[in-house]
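Hi all, long-time lurker, first post. I run a small reading group and we've been trying to get comfortable going from sequence to structure in the token notation. Rather than ask abstract questions, I figured I'd post a concrete chain and ask someone more experienced to write out its structure so we can walk through it together at our next meeting. Sequence below, copied exactly:
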Amino acid sequence: MTTGSTTARPSAIAGAIEMRRIAGAGGAARGSAARDLLALVKPRILLFALMTALAGLALAPGPAMAAPWGALALGTALIVGAANTLNMYLERDVDCLMARTRGRPLPAGRMEPRVALRFGLLQAVIAVPLLTFGVNPLTGLLGVIAFLSYVLLYTPLKQRTTVATLIGSVPGAMPPLLGWTAGTGALDAGGLALFGVLFLWQIPHFHAIALFRRKDYDRAGLKILPTTRGEATTRQAIVFYLAIQVQLTLLLTPLGVAGRWYLLAAALLGGGYFAYGASGLAAGGPRWARNLFLLSVLYLPLLMVALVLDGAG
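-- Answer (accepted) --
Happy to help. Here is the structure in token form:
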């Protein structure tokens, strides 16, 4: 009796340990799957889009309405998440060729493509009626335009033409306009100016990335300006778009979107940003391009903070 008991006890303990190991592995797998689904929506891009959409609503003229905030936030998050997810689904073979993207769930083989496809479509199916009926039809229409232009135009054209950069800047600039139309129900100069600032900001931002990651993009067969037109032309394009973008930020004050304190902040931020960009016009190399990219990432949030703090909405 005693011998049987002592023999059974280690066996029972081992069984319990094995059950816990299996349960832990299952939990880890579920956690990994959740992280991979989250990765599909590109959380940093999604968060940025959400912040600019809410900024657009805060800046819109008239009294702040409580109802659109929640629907706008959720609808924007879902429509952006859907576009990013389907972009990854369509580009899964291309992502295998790039060092910065080969670790994503689909090229790494951690997720079946059909899972990403269904997840992306599900987000879109929820987002469109939410923006259309939870906010207003104009905002819903703009959301659809952003979604379709990103998935059906920008994504496939990246391997065919550098014009894709301009096309991709349209959905990227749409969130503040979604917020503006959520508050006003109309397209007007103020909302379009916000759209323009975001549209123009993306072009030198992307060209800077293309300069210091040129080999990665070339390996994937993506059409970028440094490869098709040369680095000197790319630097000229960067400075050209920087100049227009900075000037447009200054017009937000006479358009009544923001006040004079914002104008001062925009002039100082834009002046520094443009000056650094212009410093690389003649012979800016990869280090200059990387620093310009980092500066662009710092510049825009500071500009948006100044805009919201001194906004006239």
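A couple of things your group might point at:
The longest helix spans residues 2-40.
DSSP finds 13 helices and no strands in the chain.
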